[in-house]
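Milestone M4 deliverable, item 7.
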Amino acid sequence: MKGFLVLIFLVPFLFPSSFLDLFQVSAGARQEIIRVPVDYSTIQEAINAAASGSIILVSSGVYCENLVIDKDLTLIGEDRLSTIIDGNRAGTVVYIKADRVVVNGFTVRNGTEGVYIDHSNGCVISNNIITSNWYSGIFLNRSSSNNIYDNLISMNGESPPSGGIVVGVGIELSYSNDNVINDNRLIRNIVCGISFYYSNDNLIVNNTIEASTSNIQLINAQNNTIHHNNFLSSWSHVDIIGSSSSNIWDDGSVGNYWDDYTGLDDGSNGRIAGDGVGDTDLPHLGVDNYPLINPLGPIPVVWENREYPVTLVSNFTVSKFRFAQTEKKITFTLKGPATVDGFCNITIPRNLLRGNPWKILLNTTDITSEAIITENQTYTLIHFTCSNSSTFNVQIIGTWVIPEYPSTLTLSLFIVFFTFLITLIKTKSQPSPTF
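Output delivered:
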């Protein structure tokens, strides 16, 4: 018996992580679980009734609400595409004023801000679609130690309902420190992808940012660490205003991918050739001494709030990637040392772009017959090589492209047409009136 007691006492010290996991699972089992709309018809009613630490599970549906979360709660949506919190243009959609709040698995749309974290710490905003909010997707005000990850934050910004200047920021931090922003896709937010205003010591890593005007903006912001991000097409990649010179743009060996970087990975300046990090034209934009020559992971083409990952791998520098829906093509530029033979592998989702047949142009030369094209039910992989020049403009042209109009609109038009057709048939089948 004594030996058993000693063993129990020693478990936390011998296996601390396992013991803590077991404790957390046991503690989690005691948390109250509330279901919407089973237990309460609205999310706000569930929040009001919940005890601190409760979990609120929300079934798919459209909830026209402006939530106020004033206690530590976990909100989990059934599916982020179909569990929708719609602010109805009436203010902030999800307003958080408590520590340790979790929001996961929702579409958050049509508000002033999608998610507003106000004087709150230790919150987690993850796996959401945050879109069509006129000021910002996520706003942090004097909030620290929060984690924002794996969200699609897109198309935020427009003229305010009452008129005025155009706004729109994906994530804005104001006097907010020590936050982690990772693995998000910030696409086509009108003014800026991420903005720091007097916000310090934040970590920005593994995000893809493609804004209409500026990808990242630093206003009197210090000691933020920004690396392993993809910065794609925008009017300006970086805007630095005021005292913002002490920010870090690499991890010591790797910086970020910038789609306007056209330097070479050729071993210049005593560096290593062929390691995937640019060696010329440094620092890029005055900030990045280790710019990557290829995108980090897939480039997300966002269409109708769905992501279609296109992967590009080359020993040359890849720049100016574009998906042209109306022209059914993908374009980009390759640049490498003239003395080196280049290669490129591109993987394209078949539900984004298909070729039957494909056409591949290298500058103005059709190289389709020389490329190796492999397809399965999900992806097309295209491999080709390039030599005898240092710069190549690539066009990959398909014959089918994702529809321009949303599937919901197509379905609605079909229903209207089908209803009209049935009505017409019934009318024709009725006997003519006699007088």
